[in-house]
Amino acid sequence: MTMEADTRLGLLTQLLLFALSWQLTLGSDGSAPEWSSILLRDRQVYVNDSTKLLCRYKGAPKPFIEWYANGERLGPSKRFKIAKYSLNLKDIKPKDAGSYACKVWNRFGILWGNFTLKVLNNTESPTPPDYYIEVPEDIFEDLKSKPAFSRKKDYSDYVSGSATKSVTLDCDAIGYPDANITWYRTTKLSNGIPEPNVPYKPNMRQTGLQPINYSNSKYKKEGWKLTIEDIALEDKGNYTCIVANELGSINWNFTVEVLQRLPIAPIVAALENQTAVVGEDVMWTCQIGLTDSQPMLQWLQHYQVNNSWTNEKGQPHVKLLQFEKTVDDPQLLELKNVSVNDAGWYTCLAANSVGMNYRSAYLTVLTGSDGSAPEWSSILLRDRQVYVNDSTKLLCRYKGAPKPFIEWYANGERLGPSKRFKIAKYSLNLKDIKPKDAGSYACRVWNEFGILWGNFTLKVLNNTESPTPPDYYIEVPEDIFEDLKRAVHIDDCPLERLIPIWLIVSGVAPIFFSGAVRKPNGEEGKEETETGGCAHVARSICGAIALVFNLAWLICGSVWIYPTYGKVNEDGFTPCAGNVTTGCSDDCHKPTLTFAFAMVTMDWIFFAFWLIAIGCSVRQVLAKAKESQNLNG
Q1: Are 153 and 174 in contact (CB under 8 A)?
Q2: Considering 200, 225, 259, which residue would you say is the last residue of a domain?
Q3: Which of 184, 255, 412, 558 is the residue whose CA sits 20 to 30 A from 244?
């Protein structure tokens, strides 16, 4: 037992001696903390800006660090972030001013770094920073540098913005010691720009440089940026940033241009007439396309007095329904549970300081007896055959009162708009068709008076297949196709019934007169020569009559067509259709009227070219006659 105890005691003694020698070895290799960079003792920061207090140290073993503010130990918070060597402060408040300290220690020593933070308001100017160095100066020379732009002056020197908007000028820079940035309004660019490497002077007043007055709420400084809010013409001009530390300074010049707004009254998008059944809700949105400034919006309802929408002075009878201060969305007009009394005209009025504009729409309110179930207004093509990667359109053109809704289905599943399938008012447009798109399609058209289905079969062909003849079917009464049987829309323009007649005569007259004035050939020409040329005289008379008639007919067409075309295309034109019988006008078939407008316009163009050609010919004949007279003389 005694030998075993002695052995244990010997081992314990050796372990203690080894631990002591290891501790002494470490002690000889360690070092107390010391600074590895300069400390900036005094910091001056504007309210709401950010800054960083830096304590860069070294030592072995690696020292610990703690931060203190006015004697109280700091921990991480929303505005104070503790990093490896620094304390980062953002959104600085006046209450953050005071003394700060970093405590750096290991078991060989303790090191304190003290700072004073001064918080400036927008009217104060910073004083020169006070540096102190607690280490030999020569080891920090490589760390010092004058400021430099962080993106090597790739800034734009021209900044523009629309009036009442904001612009931001950015002078992001780097350098050590930390640099200060000062913003100036430049009034004399030639004399007001400091040379590079000029020693920094607080409160610098160089000729032509006026310091930015931050007490003006439109100027906001944040870090390296200056934001000018609500810019106006007086803010146009040159601005200069000067970034400087004790080693030098740099500057950058900006030219701010203020773009004036267009002095125009609001441009209001057109409103669509609507039809509703008693008890339904109706909604209109007044879209403002372009305006000089935020317009004032009002919704008006028109009413009749003695069956007239206007008074004896031509002013409309209206009542104010809503304006922008009474609702959350002044552009939206919503009529709940409409009745027959709500039928009539409604107007969106938009006005700004330049002027006003308005758009109107008519609301037709139907009772149960006035409505009608949906029905087709054109034929349906049941079978569609399309090649791969081609496009096609499935058409369901319908009518009904109130206006029906429409949904599209493919193989029993309801479709929504997608990249290849577009749903239009009356059609489903399919593009870049794939083999998987083949199958059955259907349109469902309905209102409260009924439902209508239109069915289609889509077959997708490869490049080697040939299409088979399509199968048409008609689901509408035959009488709606009477227009297809008529060559001329003789009754399609009640607004001016002479327009279809003008088109008929304009088509027939050239055929008639061309036959009458045609010069005969062959035997007919020989016979005319033998008769002494009487037919030639008659042909000339017919030609003259044709010219006079065509000119007179062209003038008549202009008198009938141009005013009608202008009236139909006016913004406030409302055709009498359905239950709209008051405050409306006779209509004119749009394709017929457009065709007539194009014809009369082209006739005038050809007539002008003909006159020019005649004038050139007469001039040439007169010139030859004069030349011949000179030769004979």
Answers
A1: no
A2: 259
A3: 255
**pLDDT category of residue 360 using cuts at 50, 70 and 90:** very high
pTM for the model stands at 0.33
pLDDT tens, position by position, 544-579: 787 788 888 889 888 888 888 888 787 667 676 544
* Residue located via tokens 């441009």: 267
CATH code (residue 454): 2.60.40.10
Kindly report, residue by residue over 143-176, the tens digit of the pLDDT.
678 888 876 555 567 888 877 788 999 888 888 7
d(CA 547, CA 510): 10
Whether 359 is in a domain gets the answer: yes
Please, which residues bridge with residue 453 across strands? 444
Q: Which residue has the higher pLDDT, 494 or 89?
A: 89
User: Measured at the alpha carbon of residue 17, what is the angle toward residues 13 and 19, in degrees to the nearest 5?
Assistant: 115
Taking alpha carbons only, the member of 259, 252, 260 closest to residue 156 is: 252
Same structural domain, 502 and 590: yes
Kindly state whether residues 299 and 197 are assigned to the same domain: no
Domain span holding position 408: 377-483
pLDDT surpassing 80 at residue 628: no
**Pick from 370, 373, 393: which is nearest to 445 by CA?**
373
Is 16 within a domain? no
Q: Is the peptide bond preceding residue 402 cis, with omega within 30 degrees of 0?
A: yes
Distances from the Cα of 489 to the Cαs of 197, 379, 577, 596, in angstroms? 87, 20, 18, 12
> What is the rounded distance in angstroms from the CA atom of residue 406 to the CA atom of residue 423?
10
Do 57 and 130 fall into the same domain? yes
pLDDT in tens, 10-49: 555 555 555 544 454 444 568 889 888 767 677 888 888 8
333 shares a domain with 421:
no
Our measurement of the distance from residue 217's CA atom to the centroid of its chain's CA atoms, rounded to an integer in Å, reads 30
In this structure, the answer to whether residues 152 and 117 fall within a common structural domain is no
How far is the CA of 257 from the CAs of 157, 231, 238, in angstroms? Answer: 11, 10, 9
For residue 527, the model assigns a pLDDT of 53
Residue 24 included in any domain? no
SS3 320: strand
3-state secondary structure of 2: helix
Strands (DSSP E) contained in 61-179 are 64-69, 72-73, 80-82, 86-89, 98-106, 109-120, 131-132, 145-149, 158-162, 167-170, 173-176
Q: In what order do the strands lie in the sheet with 356-366?
A: 274-277, 356-366, 344-351, 296-302, 318-323
Tell me, yes or no, whether 625 lies in a domain.
no
**Residues 292 and 331 grouped into a single domain:** yes
Burial of 244 (0-12, 13-18, 19+ CB in 10 A): buried
DSSP annotation of 614 reads H
In this model, does residue 131 exceed pLDDT 80? Answer: no
Give the count of domains, the chain.
Answer: 5
Task: Tell which of 314, 331, 366 closes a domain.
Answer: 366
Q: What is the spatial distance between Cα 136 and Cα 206, in angstroms, rounded to a whole number?
A: 37
Helix (H) / strand (E) element for 218: namely none
